[in-house]
Design goal:
The complex is a heterodimer. Chain A is of the alpha/beta class. In chain A, 34% of the residues lie in helices and 17% in strands. In chain A, the strands form two sheets. A nine-stranded mixed β-sheet of chain A has the order 3-2-4-7-1-8-11-10-9, with helices on both faces. In chain A, strands 5-6 form a two-stranded antiparallel ribbon. Chain B has one helix and seven strands; from the N terminus they run H-E-E-E-E-E-E-E. The chains are: A alpha/beta, B mainly beta. Chains A and B meet through helix 5 and strand 5 of A and strand 3, strand 4 and strand 5 of B.
Chain lengths: 389, 132
């Protein structure tokens, strides 16, 4: 049994990332993106019979899936929370397809909506840590920042990856963002020197190599492929999916410079019957510049340790040889909580539909999406196609 | 200095008790003989539930590190910039720690380090590392 071609994304709804969300609420933003996704798909709320909701990353509401479904007016045959950090979005898409294939439901709303509030986050942060954090917290880690910094440091040590190569990822994605009016940093191009001259926050990572947390929401509607042609917008089919994790804390990763993307991407490509060379674009979770380099290596776009020279030589912009994060990525578009992960799915869908305007990749037929949770911990990879090739 | 300690759990009690005596002890699985860090109630290699605690030499190498210049937690503001690192003990397991008694710029991957035990405000001791 495989999920290849069984389901399609037929609707997307997204809010542009917001540094100041004003009086927005989590359910209010969820309402807006659900409405947009339904209009996009040409579906009614009564056509939805499954809900996968991302957790609220600041509060900890009880039975959140049911609350979301009730608020939106969904009578569900399937409801759940997918709590895999940044991997949540891609993980939702294949879970939706699997539930559809299993006959449990036919049309699933995958929903991410998160408000960023720095004070509330830190107030609830320590009490929500696992008790096993007792072996890390007294040493003053800097959350994800210190984990990714140690990955970058060791990658540089083992493979000779340079700060300028890391910076190139941020620069190319900024170029993409400058062609996306919804990106937080649209209209602010940067150079490699700008990145290297920005303050070192956690060595070797500079400020411009780190995402900016903000608020936002995104929804995608996944339905059975047989229903897809009746929808209003052009469907994008799920051709392959894979998921893998080897650790939660990076301290206990078997090898910090090699991620579980190696397994998740391998499984996704095997299901799709495709290879990295077949991809017209990639949409790679990019909380930091090093994340993109490790993802390109582990998904098989270059050899292990060759990611630095690869990004140096490869134009990663929408005009380039391997378009990567054409919306600007979370580094330049923004990281609205778990909707940041979903932006990698929605952008791939827009590219495959051919509606990206100024930043459209020519004749985009196939895309790889990778979403990454924790510190290169949970990985979910999707292969999406304009048709079932 | 004051550091943010978390509650001790049944599985971690021996670890913290040995640290109070300036010793670093780690559990070894009775079934598959692998060292297990962090201490927990099941062996992550073979699912066995029985362990024997073993004293470590305290010698290790820097596996990776970062210099933290803008700490999240207010407790660390006075200490910054400081080195947060993964140490690989010569016995093979890896753990988080700080590298102290040297300049952050002098730390490098592969550097030999040794354990030092530091008492904190609440009387709890912590294992840190310094250049060997």
């Amino acid at each position: 049994m495989s999920l290849r071609g069984c389901a399609a994304i037929v609707g997307i709804g997204e809010l542009a990332p917001m540094v100041d969300a004003g009086k927005m609420t989590t359910l209010g933003m969820a309402s807006q993106v659900t409405s947009r996704a339904l209009i996009d798909a040409g579906l009614k709320i009564t056509d939805i019979d499954g809900v996968l909701a991302a957790p609220d990353t600041i509060e900890d509401p009880l039975m959140w899936g049911g609350q979301v479904a009730e608020y939106l007016g969904i009578k569900s045959n399937y409801v759940d929370i997918v709590d895999l950090g940044g991997a949540t979005a891609a993980a939702m898409v294949w879970r939706a397809a699997a539930a559809i294939k299993a006959g449990m439901c036919h049309t699933v709303l995958c929903l991410t909506s998160n408000l960023w509030n720095v004070e509330r986050f830190y107030k609830t942060f320590i009490p929500r840590l696992s008790t096993e954090a007792q072996y890390e917290l007294p040493y003053g880690p800097m959350g994800a920042n210190s984990g990714y910094a140690m990955i970058a440091q060791r990658h540089m040590h083992l493979y000779g990856t340079t700060p300028a190569q890391l910076a190139k990822v941020a620069v190319d994605q900024r170029t993409n963002a400058c062609h996306n009016p919804e990106a937080l940093y649209c209209g602010k191009p940067i150079t490699i020197e700008d990145v290297l001259n920005s303050p070192l926050v956690v060595d070797p990572l500079h400020l411009l190599e780190i995402v900016k947390p903000c608020s936002g929401a995104a929804a995608v509607i996944v339905t059975a492929s047989v229903r897809a042609p009746d929808c209003r917008s052009k469907p994008v089919y799920l051709l392959g999916a894979g998921e893998h994790a080897t650790h939660s804390s990076i301290i206990y990763s078997p090898d910090i410079t090699t991620s579980p993307i190696k397994q998740s991407a391998k499984r996704a490509f095997a299901m799709a019957g495709l290879t990295p060379g077949d991809m017209d674009l990639v949409s790679l979770y990019d909380c930091y510049t090093i994340t993109v380099i490790v993802s390109l290596e582990d998904a098989g776009f270059c050899g292990k340790g060759e990611g630095g020279p690869f990004v140096e030589e490869t134009d990663l912009t929408f005009k380039g040889k391997l378009p990567c994060n054409t919306h600007g990525g979370q580094l330049s578009w923004g990281q609205p909580g778990l909707a940041g992960g979903m932006s990698h799915v929605t952008e791939a869908v827009r590219q495959l539909r051919g509606i990206c305007g100024d930043r459209q990749v020519r004749d985009a037929r196939l895309a790889l999406v990778n979403c990454n949770g924790g510190i290169m911990s949970d990985q979910a990879t999707l292969i999406l196609g304009r048709e079932v090739y | 200095m004051k550091r943010p300690f978390m509650p001790i759990t049944p599985a971690s009690e021996p670890y913290w008790s040995y640290l109070q005596k300036d010793e670093l002890w780690i559990p070894r699985c009775n079934s598959c003989s692998q060292l297990v860090f962090y201490p927990r109630e099941i062996c992550p290699h073979c699912a066995s539930l029985e362990f024997t605690w073993e004293k470590m030499s305290g010698r290790g190498k820097v596996y990776s590190f970062t210099v933290i210049r803008r700490p999240f937690l207010p407790e660390f503001a006075a200490m910054s910039p400081y080195v947060f690192a993964i140490i690989e003990l010569e016995e093979g397991i890896r753990m988080a720690s700080n590298i102290i008694n040297c300049q952050p710029n002098d730390v490098y991957i592969g550097q030999s380090v040794r354990a030092v035990f530091e008492e904190h405000e609440n009387g709890r001791k912590l294992v840190l590392f310094e250049p060997a």
